[in-house]
Design a protein that fits this description.
It contains six helices and ten strands. It has two domains: 117 residues, Nucleotidyltransferase, domain 5 (2-Layer Sandwich), CATH 3.30.420; 84 residues, 2-Layer Sandwich (Nucleotidyltransferase, domain 5).
């Protein structure tokens, strides 16, 4: 199985190839627009590994939740490449991908959703399989959903943005935290491989991001109510 994976749901852009079980992953330069580096990064990785699009089994992307522009970019790039090569696609949850990389069996994944909110979910991880315990939601830190029981490892930018509030909310459920973790394309590809094998890939025209939150900006009244300025 040969898969191309793209992940751009956070400030970190990454692209990866899964080549019959081997993962090759590259990260984009931080601070550079994802739209500027997406296609050049894909082309460079394919050339580096001597792989063409028609050699691939399919194309996968981090579907979110995450930054709206990043999710739209990953989806559109995956669709465009797949249309051109006649390939199926598959979206993989970005929080799932981060959970897979956390190195723990119970993972509480949480990223900064801006606007004073967080994207949160909880997963059980076994090998390259991730089972959803709490589905992704967008909530203020003090309303973060509580995972069942203790023994959860927290990861993601949500802990960097709202660490004290999350620690107070989650209490003894957490065994540790890695606030610097971000989802990567390599993990997206690993998760997708099993799902491709189960026949879960779809036509490129049906690809869609997982937004969770439809609203991307506060009104002036809402900003003022939250203590902001016009």
């Amino acid at each position: 199985m040969k898969l191309l994976a793209i992940e751009s749901s956070t400030e970190l852009f990454s692209v990866a190839l899964l080549l019959d079980g081997r993962i090759v992953e590259r990260e984009g330069a931080r601070g550079v627009s994802h739209s500027e580096i997406a296609l050049p990064s894909v082309r460079a990785l394919l050339e580096e590994e001597g792989v063409s699009l028609i050699d691939l089994t399919g194309i996968v992307f981090g579907a979110g939740p995450g930054a709206f522009t990043g999710l739209r970019l990953a989806t559109s790039v995956a669709q465009g490449l797949a249309f051109g090569a006649g390939l199926p696609v598959l979206g993989v949850g970005s929080l799932e991908a981060m959970a897979l990389e956390a190195g723990a069996e119970r993972v509480y994944a949480c990223t900064d959703a801006r606007m004073g909110e967080l994207y949160c979910a909880a997963y059980r991880v076994a090998g390259d399989s991730v089972e959803t315990v709490l589905s992704p939601v967008v909530v203020p830190p003090h309303e973060a959903p509580l995972p069942p029981g203790p023994g959860w490892f927290g990861c993601g930018s949500g802990f960097a943005a709202h660490g004290e509030l999350l620690q107070a909310r989650l209490g003894g459920a957490l065994t540790g935290v890695n606030a610097g973790m971000r989802p990567g394309a390599g993990a997206v590809a690993r998760l997708a491989a099993e799902r491709f094998a189960r026949g879960e890939a779809i036509d490129a025209a049906l690809a869609a991001p997982l937004y969770v939150r439809d609203k991307i900006a506060l009104t002036t009244q809402e900003r003022l109510a939250a203590g902001g300025s016009k």
